[in-house]
Design a protein that fits this description.
five-stranded mixed β-sheet, OmpA family protein, mainly beta, 29 strands
């Protein structure tokens, strides 16, 4: 899977998608998943798509901003996004938006795409007049921008955009064009660099356009999701899935033979594997892990012996249609940090046996499929249509307050294979506050990778099944991850910021979930909108 995409090969990066092949045509996969009657929703172009709200700036001058996507064009070479930004409030001096990088997300397959950059990290498209990444901004004046992304696969008809600092913008349609929009004829941005020299009233600021060249590279990756239960957890990253059976339900201390209960868990796991493993790549790698107690040699041997015990029983259940491989990685790959206040939980998390395989992309959970609530339901991937665009998060359904920060919670909204959680945070004091929202220190023994970021301590809990859904990550390879959530920075007195966190979706018959909101506590019966 490509991680850094040079412009010269971007047109070839079209594999891995099973999406709509048009606005009204239903593929066999869609028919099997949703039924003929449902059909894909009609994709309508209603540009501009507009969001307004307060964004975080590096100077603390957290201004109100209007962000409008005015076009998303797919050419033969790349994807071109046109957008406009304006600030109605007063602020001065050089400021940088502290939102995540501009990112296009395919909510069905989980592919993610970021902008083309040069070797100095500067963006292609609208050029910074001083070549420092900054642009002149004047109160009430609209700036027009163009940015370039890798070419989206032909089958992708809608994407979700994140990175404006104003939450997730779902349902943005992709426009197929022979030629992209023409460049500004006489860019006026360099002519109005100082605050005392605004453009004439009603005139937008425009900038020279630089198209990607042979030095252009762009990050491509996948949304990586993590779902947990008392019995097992599942990590999905691209076309690979890892089911991890917690060793505390598998083995006695210092033993490698399966308990009776463990044998039952492995047999149920075999049913899940038979459904989920890609028949075109039927290799299942059984990987044993230990905690950090003991020396390397001892733990390596124990992890192999445990993996072999699981492999042998799995072979009895699955038959000869699968290739079973065994690896023992001892204590070398912990997923939770040991030695802290939650050391016992962390060590329990690290003692595990994993099944790693390429999943079958044509098998998806449906509304009619019986939901597995015994803990192995973690391996189900639940997909609906991409969410239509909306700038309205709905009505507040729950609220709370902690240390001067008021939290307001809006309904959850399913977008393809993911659920978007939207919250608003308000500083009710007279002093700037940096909320302590947790992360790894608030989730005992939780996998550290999925607890990073200021909303990393948030989770969705499904009371009926006991499944816990963590905030998703974007994986760009080479251990480069980005939380699929807006970062929370210092909130100025009286200011309100709307923030989003994205989770793997529950089955379509789940109507409510519990939001675990870090130090704010738990909020039950948060509705899920489809």
């Amino acid at each position: 899977m490509a991680r850094k995409t040079p412009l010269t090969v971007v047109a070839l990066m079209v594999s891995g998608s099973l999406l709509l092949s048009g606005c009204t045509v239903v593929s066999d996969w869609w028919s099997e998943t949703f039924g003929e009657a449902s059909g894909p929703p009609e994709v309508k172009e209603e540009f501009p798509y507009v969001r307004e709200g307060r964004i975080f700036q590096d100077t603390g001058q957290d201004a109100e901003m209007r962000f409008a996507i005015t076009g998303l064009e797919r050419t033969d070479d790349y994807t071109v996004m046109h957008y406009e930004v304006s600030y109605p409030d007063d602020f001065s001096g050089p400021n940088r938006n502290l939102s995540m990088a501009h990112t296009l997300v395919d909510p069905l397959t989980g592919r993610v795409y970021r902008q083309f950059l040069d070797d100095e990290g500067l963006k292609y498209g609208s050029e910074s007049p001083n070549e420092d990444g900054l642009y002149p901004v004047h109160d009430g004046v609209t700036n027009e921008y163009t940015r370039y992304f890798p070419r989206l696969p032909d089958e992708v008809s809608q994407v979700t955009f994140v990175g404006s600092g104003l939450g997730a913008m779902t349902g943005i349609p992709v426009q197929d064009v022979e030629n992209e929009r023409e460049d500004p004829e006489d860019p006026n941005g360099p002519k109005h660099l100082t605050l005392d020299d605004p453009p004439p009233r009603g005139e937008n600021l425009t900038f020279a356009n630089r198209r990607p060249d042979e030095d252009a590279v762009a990050d491509e990756g996948w949304v990586q999701s993590f779902v947990d239960s008392e019995i097992a957890s599942t990590t999905r990253d691209g076309d690979r899935e890892i089911i991890s059976l917690h060793s505390d339900v598998m083995f006695e201390f210092d033993r490698s033979d399966l308990t009776a209960d463990a044998a039952d868990v492995v047999r149920r796991a075999a049913t899940t594997l038979a459904r989920n493993v890609d028949p075109d790549d039927p290799t299942i790698t059984v990987v044993g892990h230990t905690d950090g107690i003991g020396n390397d040699s001892y733990n390596d041997n124990l992890s192999v012996e445990r993996a072999e015990s699981v492999r042998d029983l799995l072979a009895e259940e699955l038959g000869t249609d699968y290739k079973l491989e065994v690896e023992g990685r001892g204590k070398r790959e912990p997923i939770a940090r040991e030695g802290g206040p939650d050391d016992e939980e962390a060590r329990a998390r690290n003692r595990r046996v994993e099944f790693s395989y390429v999943f079958n992309p044509t098998v998806e959970a449906t509304e009619d499929e019986e939901y597995d609530d015994d803990g192995l339901g973690v391996a189900q991937r639940n997909v609906t249509w991409p969410a239509p665009y909306s700038d309205d998060p709905g009505s507040v359904v729950a609220d709370g307050e902690k240390d001067g920060i008021r939290l307001e919670i809006y309904p959850l909204r399913q977008d393809g294979a993911y659920v978007i959680g939207t919250v608003a945070m308000t500083n009710t004091t007279d002093e700037p506050l940096a909320p302590e929202l947790g992360g790894s220190e608030t989730v005992a023994g939780g996998p550290e990778q999925f607890n990073k970021g200021t909303l990393g301590g948030f989770q969705l809990f499904e009371p009926e099944s006991g499944l816990v859904r963590y905030v998703a990550q974007m994986d760009f390879g080479e251990n480069r991850y980005s939380s699929f959530a807006e970062e929370v920075h210092t909130i100025q007195p009286g200011n309100t910021h709307e923030l989003v966190a994205v989770f793997p979706a529950p089955p379509v018959d789940v109507e409510e979930l519990t939001l675990r909101a870090g130090p704010f506590g738990e909020f039950e019966e948060i509705p899920v909108e489809y």
